[in-house]
Specification:
The protein is about 45% helix and about 15% strand. The chain is an alpha/beta fold and about 270 residues long. It starts with a helix and ends with a strand.
Length: about 270
């Protein structure tokens, strides 16, 4: 990359990090640089780079999916610890503020029941691009003395999750990390990748299998929506084909189970 173009990308990243829309998220530089570099590969002018970059960032971060002030929610945990006396009720109240987790609430027990049937009770779990999925921990059955590692690029969300974990889930830790640029290297029983593969593919086609290949886990529980957010259109065939295409020609196989409006793909290496 030429020095002049690199400087322009650096300026674009700084502009984004200080913008009103994204400054509270404290997004990591390596994440933003990857998006900017990908935009630069297909654009011919600085204006086109900026347009593509902003579109891709919006698709990945999807701020339109939630209505939560993480700084205020973190302060609430500090100043009102009694709200965790009924932990499931508190978690549900916050999950309702994010579209992805809100969709899952009606069949939350069944969802994690299916996961337990398929993979048992894992001891070490990686939750990739986690968003607010870790608030489902009261419903997830884990082995004794577990470890739960949650990865996300949103710094404000990471701070909030770590405050919650310290108070209610001491076996859990949230880590600010771009799982595509820097995939987790921990050996784990399973990885959760909930409702993110379609956005990862928009970020870079072929990114899903690239991620799966680099994970050191026994099974990946990948989920995708079975319908659109308004529940007007079925996405089951489209998202099943996305997974099939991603692992085509690879030493992976999967089993698909639908729970409510969510498709669960249990992906394992090997042909059987």
């Amino acid at each position: 990359m030429k020095k002049e173009q690199k400087n322009k990308l650096t300026d674009l990243i700084e502009e984004t990090k200080t913008s009103r829309k994204y400054r509270e998220m404290d997004l990591p530089n390596e994440f933003l640089l990857d998006l900017a570099s990908q935009a630069a590969k297909v654009a011919s002018t600085p204006a086109e780079i900026k347009t593509i970059f902003r579109k891709n960032l919006h698709n990945v971060i999807a701020p339109y999916l939630e209505n939560i002030d993480y700084r205020q929610e973190t302060l609430r945990l500090i100043n009102e610890p009694e709200i965790l006396n009924d932990l499931p009720a508190y978690c549900l109240s916050v999950m309702k503020k994010h579209a992805s987790t809100r969709e899952r609430i009606p069949w939350l027990v069944e969802f994690f029941g299916v996961i337990e049937e398929q993979i048992g009770r894992p001891k070490l779990v990686l939750d990739l691009a986690c968003a607010l999925d870790p608030l489902s921990l009261p419903w997830l059955k884990l082995a004794p003395e577990p470890t739960f590692l949650a990865f996300d690029v949103n710094g404000a969300r990471i701070n909030y999750l770590n405050q919650l974990f310290a108070a209610a889930f001491p076996f859990a830790k949230a880590i600010q990390q771009d799982i595509f640029v820097d995939p987790p290297c921990e050996k784990a029983d399973c990885a959760f990748f909930f409702k993110e593969a379609h956005r990862l593919e928009k970020r870079q086609p072929g990114a899903t299998i690239q991620l799966l290949q680099q994970l050191n886990v026994d099974v990946i529980v990948l989920t995708l929506p079975a319908t659109d957010l308004a529940r007007h259109h079925s996405l089951e065939n489209y998202h099943t084909q996305l997974v099939e295409k991603a692992i085509q020609g690879q030493d992976f196989h999967f089993e698909k189970i639908r729970v409510g409006d969510e498709l669960l793909f249990f992906i394992r290496k090997g042909s059987s």
